[in-house]
Amino acid sequence: MNLNELLSEYRRRANAAGLQCDVLGHGTTDARIAIVAEAPGPREVDMKTPLVGGSGRFLWEVLRKYNINRNTCYTTNVIKRQVSTGDDDERIGVSGEEFNRWADLLQWELKQLPNLKYVLVMGGAALKALTGHDKIRNWRGSVTELNGVHYVFTTNPADVLRNPETEVVFRFDIAKLDRVMKGEYRGHSITARINPSPDEALRWIARMRREGLPVAYDIETIAGETACIGLANDAHEGMCIAFRTRSANVYSVRDELRVRLALQDLFNEVAVKLVAQNGNFDAYWLWFKDRIRVSRNWFDTLLAHHTLYPTLPHDLGFLTAQYTDHPYYKDERTEWREGSDIDTFWNYNVKDCCITLACQQRLHHELRQSKLDSFYYNHVMRLQPHLTRMTVNGVLADVTLKDEITGELLKRVHELEDEFHTAVREATGDPTYVVSPRSNVQLGDLFFNKLGLTGRGTSVAKANRVRMLSTASPTAANVIRRLDVYATEQKFLSTYAESQVDVDGRLRCEYKQFGTQSAPGRLSSSMTMWKSGMNLQNQPKRAQKMFICPPGYGFVYFDLSQAEARVVAHAWQVKGLLENFKRADVDVHRANASRIFRVPYENVPAVDWNEDGTPTIRYLGKRCVHGLNYRMGADKLAEACSIAIAQAMDAYYMYHAAFPEIKIAWDNIIATVKRTRELWTPMGRRQKWLGRLDADDALDSVIAFVPQSTIGDKVSSVIYQSHDDPKWPSSAAMCLNIHDALIAVAPLDQREQCAKVMKRYAEAPITIRGESVSIPAEFSFSQPDEGGVHRWSTLQKMK
């Protein structure tokens, strides 16, 4: 068919199927390339041509680099009328039955192109129509071949316009299309050795030790137990050693013991370079669940990618698309649970190992090219085994006290909910009106419809509730205050008191080196993969009593004094801050408040709170230094300090008048990043910005990066430096990271020795703008309570 014949026949078939066609295909039927989008937008409907709107212009601009233009392609949409679409298939604005009719017609349409060799599949609707798969964000960057036609998957270019940070990934996908067309795409074959006998497994493990190549490993779990361990030292061949099926053990006890001991020897072999994806999980799982200890991972592909590109995704599905020619396969992890042969699971395990090894080879080269290899191996990977140890050790919990707190809180939360309901009835004057304090929809109706409150938009979050208070009537303000108290207690109950303690009486968390995109280097934490524990970094003061030491042990705590502000002072050459930090005879917070609010030092209170519960200028000075360095506005300062906006505006202007170099530094940093797209910290970490830098939140992260990441890496380095120091007591260990602080547990008579080691590394100078800068460390030791127990809550500052 020529184009007119094709379109005429398509319209006839669509009419017969009861489908409305606003925009038909366009281009030449002789095309080797077809571009399939989701549905036409308003501009395309007006022009009766696909891909002519804003997203179309962006697409053709990207394709022009590869000499692909509209005249040489056939362009079409899955759905030929304007509907609401998105990257998730459930957002397509047509019924399932209608979508299937459109999909059948698309399959027919493409078959009418006799020279078709390549199809660029854009968006979730196109993916679904041509493959039956869901979730384009998983499949983007993949290539599949069917009947001699290569299909290259990417997101809808309209999504790039909505989310500019995804532009670099979209451009990568188009580059893969170019590789396919040039014949440079080879696919990635994998030979999976599964269901080995015990002797075959032992020979494979011995081979991994003998050949001296990097060994990728990966575990899979079933019902909270280790189901299998995969091993590969070749990106195209690996073995899955399975221990459990759905209902039975694979080996006898004797044979499984032989295999496990061989695995332990492999993981302990110093000469073996172990490679993993998110290896901290595999290591702490094997140690805690199987008592198989991984001495250290040499390479972690997740952490390597995070070191290179902190703002991009780091999951193995994403890395597969970026660094290999293997199509997306991660859904195979769960397919066996839906009736497939469990061998699918074992094959998946091998694929994970081989793909991880393939990614490692590319990432290693990229780290060297970016001059990040030394930082990665000597800091990022050096830290990982120590975080594994901290997870496995956990922190002893006072379970009896925890249960008492839970019981008291349950009762208190019920009382607070009743008080909230009473306040609602009084404010609305309606004795029958009931609203759940946990329903945002119901709270929105209460605040904006029933009570007529005003804030910023229709959010019912705490920040907006603070805004509502300024114009609320006394009874409406009482509703908000009751809700605030209830929300605080409910969060404490659900997040802290009800967290799961492990059977050995310890609370644990998983520390993540990749958890903070805006400030890479800072650790985050969460519950373990077996669903016990919680985030242990943001514990409220009253929860700290639950954390205790074994008999004969105590806590050693340190934090760095005004750490980020000191980095700011030196990196940005803030004269006033530098002068205050150099004065050893003053309270820095009082000195800063004195300079900001222009009052004599001796007139600044030594405490943060007045007797009536209002903040002192010392507290306001602390909050200014903490927030206003990073572009916080007066409105945010008012929320953070619970003060009037007028008072916050005064503090804002006085702060920047006292330290004028700060705004000058902002302009210089933003100009540098817009020119180079990157910044480096004094610790050797790089942040690379790949998306647009127009939004305020993006610029906020630019400003905060160097101070926050520098201190995050500095504190983390104290963990491994202390543990590795020959003077560190063997019976002591770091147990908690609290962002800018650390807590260790040690025998009571060895705490001073631990503190000396920690102090040595904490106060070791870092070089900022050519100057050697040492940040003072402040130490606290836990004291015995009335029962002789050392608790986190009993820390007392030590000189």
Which structural class best describes the helix and strand composition? Answer: alpha/beta
Number of helices: 29
Annotated CATH homologous superfamily of the largest domain:
Ribonuclease H-like superfamily/Ribonuclease H
Q: Percent of residues in beta strands?
A: 5-15%
Main beta sheet strand tally, sense and closure: 6 strands, mixed
In the CATH hierarchy, what is the class of the largest domain?
Alpha Beta
Gross geometry:
globular
Précis, in short:
This protein is of the alpha/beta class.
Question: How is the secondary structure organized here?
Answer:
Blueprint: H1 3-16, E1 26-27, E2 33-37, H2 42-47, H3 54-64, E3 73-77, H4 96-111, E4 118-122, H5 124-131, H6 136-139, E5 143-146, E6 149-154, H7 157-162, H8 167-181, E7 191-193, H9 198-210, E8 215-222, E9 225-234, E10 237-242, H10 253-268, E11 274-276, H11 279-290, E12 299-300, H12 301-308, H13 316-323, H14 332-335, H15 343-369, H16 373-393, E13 395-396, H17 399-428, H18 440-450, H19 462-469, H20 474-497, E14 506-507, E15 510-512, E16 524-526, E17 553-560, H21 563-571, H22 575-582, H23 588-597, H24 617-627, H25 634-641, H26 645-658, H27 661-676, E18 678-680, E19 686-688, H28 696-724, E20 733-737, E21 741-747, H29 751-762, E22 766-768, E23 771-773, E24 777-784, E25 790-798
Parallel strand pairs: 2-3, 2-4, 4-6, 7-10, 8-11, 11-12
Antiparallel strand pairs: 1-3, 5-6, 8-9, 9-10, 13-14, 15-16, 17-21, 17-24, 18-19, 20-21, 22-23, 24-25
Helix pairs in contact: 1-4, 4-5, 9-10, 11-16, 12-15, 13-15, 16-28, 17-20, 19-20, 21-22, 21-28, 22-23, 23-24, 25-26, 28-29
